[in-house]
Design a protein that fits this description.
By secondary structure, the protein is an alpha/beta fold. The chain contains eleven helices and nine strands. The chain is about 40% helix and about 15% strand. Helix 5 packs across helix 6. Bound molecules: phosphoric acid mono(formamide)ester (CP) and norvaline. Norvaline binds next to helix 6.
Length: about 300
C-alpha cells in the first residue's frame, strides 16, 4: 500500500495501490481458506467513540477469518484523551497490539494516536473521512463496471466524512464525482481543493453544486444519512433543506443512473426511499459485504 504505515485517509494513495487492494480483496473473497492464517498471533485493537454495526462486525469477523484476534474498546462514555493523555494511550496500546483501528469524533485524535503509535493505525470513521467505506464503495463499482475511471458518480446529501472520502478516492482513481448538497452542508472547501488538485494529475473531475438539475447522465447515485452520528440536529430542522436531495425513483430516472449506493445506516423514507433501496439498481448490500473484504485486504497489506 504505497509503503503507508497508517491508513488515515485515501488522499496519499495511488491508483495502482488501490487496484492492488481490489485484487487482493477479490482473492480473499474467492478463496478465504488460503488466507485463514495470515494474521495468526496478531491482535488488533478496534476502538469506538461512536456506535457501529457494519464496521464493528466486519472488522471482528474479518479479523477472525484471517486467524487474528480483535479486541473491542468501547469509548462511547469514555472519550479518548480524558482518562490519560493520547500519547500514553497510543504508546501503551502499541506494546500489546499489532494494529489500531479507530472510530473517533475528531480526526486530530487519530493523528495524535498515529503520531505516538509504533503500529499501523486505520481510520474507521472520523468527522472528516471514512476511507474504509470509500475503498469498499469503489471495490463494489469495480466489480460491476468495466472502468471506474469512466464512472460519473453523484453524491447527494450531507457533504461530510463519506462524501469527502468518496471525492478523494474518486480523484485518485480518475472518476467524476459531483457532490450535490444544500449550500449549508457543502463539503469542506480544503478537502474539495485537495481532491481537485489530485484530479488535475489523474484526469478525474471533482465538482460541487447545490442544484440537483446539474446532474444528468450519471452512472451512480450515492447517499448517506442527513444527520450524522453525534450531530445535535433534529429531523424537523434539517428536513426542509435536505428533502430536495432525497434519492427516489423520480430522481433516479431524472439522473439516468444505473446504480445506487448508500454507506448505511439508511433512513428509509428520508434520504432514500424503500423502492430504490430494495430495487435491482441497489448495490447497497454488496457494498456492505465488501467492507469486510477491503478491510481484510488493508490488514493483510499492512500486517502480513
Ligand atoms: N457504514 C458504516 O460505517 O456503518 P456503521 O456505522 O454501522 O459501522
Ligand atoms: N456520515 C455518517 C456516516 C455513517 C457511516 C456519520 O458520520 O454518521
Amino acid at each position: 500500500m504505497n509503503n503507508l504505515q497508517h491508513l488515515l485517509d485515501t488522499a496519499d494513495m495511488t491508483a495502482e495501490s488501490i487496484f492492488a487492494l481490489f485484487e487482493l480483496a477479490n482473492n480473499l473473497k474467492a478463496d478465504p481458506e488460503k488466507f485463514s492464517n495470515v494474521l495468526a498471533g496478531k491482535s488488533i485493537v478496534t476502538l469506538y467513540e461512536k456506535p457501529s454495526l457494519r464496521t464493528r462486525v466486519t472488522f471482528d469477523i474479518g479479523i477472525n477469518k484471517l486467524g487474528g484476534h480483535a479486541v473491542y474498546l468501547d469509548h462511547k462514555d469514555d472519550p479518548i484523551g480524558q482518562r490519560e493523555a493520547i500519547q500514553d494511550y497510543a504508546k501503551n496500546l502499541s506494546q500489546w497490539a499489532d494494529c489500531i483501528v479507530g472510530r473517533v469524533f475528531f480526526h486530530e485524535t487519530l493523528e495524535e494516536i498515529a503520531k505516538y503509535s509504533s503500529v499501523p493505525v486505520i481510520n474507521s470513521l472520523c468527522d472528516r473521512y471514512h476511507p474504509c467505506q470509500a475503498l469498499a464503495d469503489f471495490l463494489t463499482l469495480y466489480e460491476h463496471h468495466d472502468d471506474v475511471s469512466k464512472l460519473k458518480i453523484a453524491y447527494l446529501g450531507d457533504g461530510n466524512n463519506v462524501c469527502h472520502s468518496l471525492m478523494l478516492t474518486g480523484a485518485v482513481l480518475g472518476a467524476t464525482v459531483t457532490a450535490v448538497t444544500p449550500i449549508s452542508h457543502s463539503p469542506n472547501a480544503i478537502i474539495v481543493k485537495q481532491a481537485q488538485d489530485i484530479a488535475a494529475n489523474t484526469g478525474a473531475t471533482i465538482q460541487i453544486t447545490s442544484n440537483i438539475n446539474d446532474v444528468e447522465g450519471y452512472d451512480v447515485i450515492y447517499t448517506d444519512t442527513w444527520i450524522s452520528m453525534g450531530a445535535q440536529k433534529s429531523l424537523e430542522h434539517v428536513l426542509p433543506s435536505f428533502l430536495p436531495y432525497q434519492v427516489n425513483k423520480t430522481l433516479m430516472k431524472q439522473v439516468g443512473a444505473q446504480h445506487v449506493l448508500h454507506c448505511q445506516p439508511a433512513h428509509r423514507g428520508q434520504e432514500i426511499t424503500s423502492d430504490v433501496m430494495d430495487s435491482d439498481q441497489s448495490l447497497i448490500l454488496p457494498q456492505a459485504e465488501n467492507r469486510m473484504h477491503i478491510q481484510n485486504a488493508i490488514l493483510v497489506s499492512l500486517l502480513a
